[in-house]
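User: quick one - fold this with pyridoxal-5'-phosphate bound?
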Amino acid sequence: MVKVIAKYSPRLDVLPPYLFARIDALKAEKEVQGLNVIDLGVGDPDQPTPPHIVNSLLSAAHKGVNHRYPASEGMLSYREAVSEWYAKKHIALDPTSEVLALIGSKEGLAHLPLAFIGRGDKVLVPDPAYPVYKIAAILADGKPISMPLTADSGFLPNIDKAAADAKLLFINYPNNPTAAVANDAFFRNVVDFASDNDVIVCHDGAYLELTYDGYRAPSFLSVRGAMDVGIEVNSLSKTYNMTGWRMGFAVGNADVIAGLRKVKSNLDSGAFQAVQEAGITAMAGPQDSVDTLRRLYAERRDVLVDGLNDIGWSVDKPKATFYVWAPIPDGSPSLEFSLKLLDAGVVATPGIGFGDYGEGYIRFALTVPVGMIEEAVRRLAEVV
Ligand SMILES: Cc1ncc(COP(=O)(O)O)c(C=O)c1O
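Assistant: Sure. Structure tokens for the protein plus pyridoxal-5'-phosphate:
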């Protein structure tokens, strides 16, 4: 038999290495050695999907009509539910032209550049950031250009210094990994930049609903002019503990939505309709589970941030997301520091994994119960 040698495309060759693989492997090693590791690394909710949403899936799964190919753009009833949900929270949208179902928001973010980016076109991406923006730009043969997010500017990029000849701009507030939030003034600045320079904006709003202490995060689309320049991508994953279900949506400018819809209609055949029906239940049904979730994460945040500050760290309390973005107290490089934490039995994500400007920070995810967070703080006290 002749062995086929898999030769990867130059596109795959230039993808950055998966830094987290090393941490995952070391974590597994520690567990084999019998150490019970507390994992504050992954941004994956530990709470179950609310039962009324699960029940909705169960009954929808029995319907034969749902067993056939869905439409890539999503059922009209799903898109209507999205538009009603958005109207209640932010702005009115036309479900036929301004809403598109996604198989999780990652899918939409990853496919968007294929609709608008040609070889060498510039794509503005925040640094640090959720890695998908940069990788999607590369996979579309575009050129990612970093916009640094630093503490002195509240982790908002300096839009006035952004490359005006870019084609696409990604932003994300409430932000992963920094947990920073944006105000209307910042969004207005983005809209002005985009309309002056013909840049499409994609705002990633995956954490819009996870806000605390009475704070409510604004939708990018609620700023005047935003509907003319871009879209917002959102997800049921974090709001309803549905990461495994893969259900999200893109909303906003009809031409941008149409471009993404065209790419998707050639690449995927949509989300299982029973999952879309459950998604409708999530958005149209009782929302008390979201309030409960907000209270849960706020309590965990308080325990972690107060605990870290008590042991000599200097950490701000985030108003949103389920992340805590902590400056590394001993100034060591973030990867090295995360390995030290792992030796003490705590997994956290080194800032460098989100980009060069993430160096100097470590990200904790609030996805374990309070008792484990308290134990993690006790372990961290031994490290520094
Ligand atoms: C900022 C951000 N955007 C998008 C996603 C993707 O979410 P999903 O594909 O589950 O909708 C994540 C997941 O962690 C994220 O942190």
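One thing worth noting: The pocket of pyridoxal-5'-phosphate is lined by residues 43, 104-106, 130, 172, 176, 204, 206, 235, 237, 243, 248 (CB under 6 Å).
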